[in-house]
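quick q for whoever's on today - can somebody do inverse folding on this one?? i tried earlier but teh output was garbage lol. tokens:
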């Protein structure tokens, strides 16, 4: 008989975490570290659901049982035959019902000790949403601020290398958090999976040590930062990374190389600024792009659009922005940002 586990139980206590939902449900979000063993795949779920509506529950359940049994057989053949008896999986589906129950029954009859999440993924999601503010509350955040192109993400990487605690929201969101921030070939996760990734990161932090995070707006691309985290960030001390305009332009030319290589893509993204900067300005930028004057466009974007927008947003949203500690980087290169990271870590250690 399967044993019940709480929705936010410690995943490390199980040999494997198995998501018995379809691959589509799994892709939207899943427990950290879970593998996907669908009891019904996407097409099969549609087939059984349609049969339920058209022919009734009994016919749907017969065909569904046949499909589930065949899938469980394949999972056992593929994954289970070489496992020892002490293997202890945690299994879940949407609400802890038939899909996970069928898999757990068969594995339990083999002789494995099986655990089910009480309430399934739905209960996990509700518990996670409730837990995020509790994880945020004891943490001390240090905000890495600075205008676009100043190297904030590079500084976060340098801080990580120095052993600091870092929450890289843009990395979790697969987006660089601006109108031009979409990364080609890297779709953003769902909102639910973004929340799960944030929750997982928050769980890893030691409240006795500060957490460095970039000065994000409420949304990173299409994804929203949880409100409790956003409020904590906006009330936290700021450390403003300062870099010369020439170095910022050079940094953006490196980090957004795909715009340099694909003029059509760059121009398409610039269209998003028409409502803010006007059609004539944007068309002039696009002409420069097609003429190869990418650096000139990047410089104009910084001076005319990003810098004033960022400055007003910081003053409006981050309570301690006007008291930010200046962190001057001599260049955009890794050694310069490593020194800034070391200084920040030493300063935090001295004030702890």
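ok took a stab at it. sequence:
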């Amino acid at each position: 008989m399967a044993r019940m586990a709480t929705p936010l139980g410690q995943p490390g206590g199980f040999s494997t975490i198995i998501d018995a939902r379809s691959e589509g449900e799994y892709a939207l979000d899943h427990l950290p570290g879970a593998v996907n063993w669908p009891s019904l795949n996407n097409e099969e779920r549609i087939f059984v659901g349609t049969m339920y509506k058209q022919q009734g529950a009994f016919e749907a359940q017969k065909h569904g049982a046949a499909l589930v049994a065949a899938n469980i057989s394949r999972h056992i053949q593929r994954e289970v035959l070489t496992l020892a008896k002490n293997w202890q999986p945690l299994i879940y589906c949407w609400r802890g019902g038939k899909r996970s129950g069928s898999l757990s029954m068969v594995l339990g009859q083999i002789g494995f000790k099986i655990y089910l999440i009480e309430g399934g993924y739905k209960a996990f999601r509700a518990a996670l949403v409730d837990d995020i503010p509790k994880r945020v509350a004891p943490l001390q955040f240090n905000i890495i601020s600075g205008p676009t192109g100043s190297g904030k993400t590079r500084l976060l990487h340098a801080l990580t290398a120095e052993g600091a605690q870092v929450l890289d929201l843009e990395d979790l969101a697969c987006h660089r958090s601006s109108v031009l921030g979409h990364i080609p070939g890297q779709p953003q996760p769902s909102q639910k999976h973004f929340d799960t990734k944030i929750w997982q990161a928050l769980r890893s932090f030691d409240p006795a040590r500060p957490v460095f995070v970039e000065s994000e707006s409420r949304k990173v691309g299409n994804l929203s930062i949880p409100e409790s985290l956003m409020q904590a960030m906006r009330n936290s001390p700021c450390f403003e990374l300062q870099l010369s305009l020439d170095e910022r332009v050079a940094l953006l030319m490196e980090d957004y190389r795909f715009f340099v290589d694909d003029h059509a893509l760059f121009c398409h993204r610039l269209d998003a600024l028409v409502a803010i900067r006007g059609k004539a300005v944007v068309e002039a930028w696009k002409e420069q792009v097609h003429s190869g004057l990418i650096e000139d466009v990047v410089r104009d974007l910084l001076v005319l659009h990003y810098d004033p927008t960022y400055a007003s947003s910081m003053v409006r949203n981050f309570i301690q922005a006007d008291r930010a500690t200046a962190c001057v980087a001599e260049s955009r290169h890794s050694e310069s940002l490593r020194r800034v990271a070391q200084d920040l870590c030493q300063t935090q250690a001295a004030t702890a």
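fwiw The chain has two domains: 3-129, 141-351. also DSSP finds 16 helices and twelve strands in the chain. so keep that in mind when u check it
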